[in-house]
Amino acid sequence: MIQLSNIQTAAARLQGQLLRTPCVASRTLSDITGAQVFLKFENLQFTASFKERGACNKLAQLSAAERQRGVIAMSAGNHAQGVAYHAQRLGLRAVIVMPRFTPGVKVERTRGFGAEIVLHGDTLDEARVHALALAEQQQLIFVHPYDDADIVAGQGTVALEMLQEVPELDTLVVAVGGGGLIAGMATAAKAIKPEIEIIGVQTVRFPTMFNAIKGTHLPLGSSSIAEGIAVGTPGKIPQAIIARMVNDLVLVDEGDIEQAIVMLLEVEKTLVEGAGAAGLAALLKYPDKFKGKRVGLVLSGGNIDPLLLAAIIERGMVRAGRLARIRVSARDIPGTLAKITATVAEAGANINEVHHQRAFTTLAAQNAEVELVIQTRGPQHVAEVLAQLQQAGLQAGLI
Predict the structure, then answer these.
(1) 300 counts as catalytic
(2) 263-291 confidence digits (pLDDT tens)
(3) Among residues 26, 49, 51, 75, which one is catalytic?
(4) What is the pTM of this model?
């Protein structure tokens, strides 16, 4: 079993090799959630993820003969970048096997650190099998993303730093994929402060550790917005630690994670990926569980595909009522469209899209439907726009 001493040794080994990220209070998120929220900004690491910690701790301990052979890893992105970057720093050959669904931004950044990229399989498990085969063929050292004592010890340094910065923390909320981060953090935190509460967060689509610990049989999905924790097989080493030291595991939905990503972007002006937002998603979904407590959240990574981010922001605007789709029915005569757009403008809304529909409608032949996507200040403003359209003699409603 990993001890506090292993994590303290790892912390000394990592000093000067990566960033000691800030852990600061968020007044606004505290007001929103009802807990006193402290954020650990691991998305500020050079590779934008905590995974550097375990990778650096592992690679720094390789013997001269092992360094000569080079390393191989399987990863959906963040472990890949951590291994590739620190292998490059140490002058090691690095081969990274990534599932085919891995976001392009993670693939290109990993390649940018000088690693040889192999895209194989649709899941992490398929990538792992291929990576193990390549390791045997080419005599490479396999660096597991979470089922390795040195990796777990490296990740545990996150909790050391958090409790040094904010020793009064009551609860740590940590995203769980394979379990390396929460296992390392729980080991460190419980040794320093035995009464501290450790809560793990998984997605409804990938509840593998939740199933393993709680004995449930919830089904696995095929993909998740939090691909960093979309793990099909939990780690044996982390699972044993989690079973002993983690107080509870909770599940969040895709929508909860989307909401948390947008909130962190708007409130904290910080960019996180799906896995990095899972902790805040849990606070938003289960407020009573955390109310009044001093809660530490790990923003574990910030590598997100720009197109995915754009879609999440747009969907967030829809949920907030700041982007709305309305349908206006009117007589199909010259000037009608101008009247509609002028009325929307007078109500203070901005038109994003206009679709003028004549054929595909059940209205009378001399009538037309106009669908608008409008930018507003929120639900109340949407209601005001609809009211003004109706006052102008137009039939209008939300779609």
Answers:
(1) yes
(2) 999 999 999 999 999 999 999 999 999 99
(3) 51
(4) 0.90
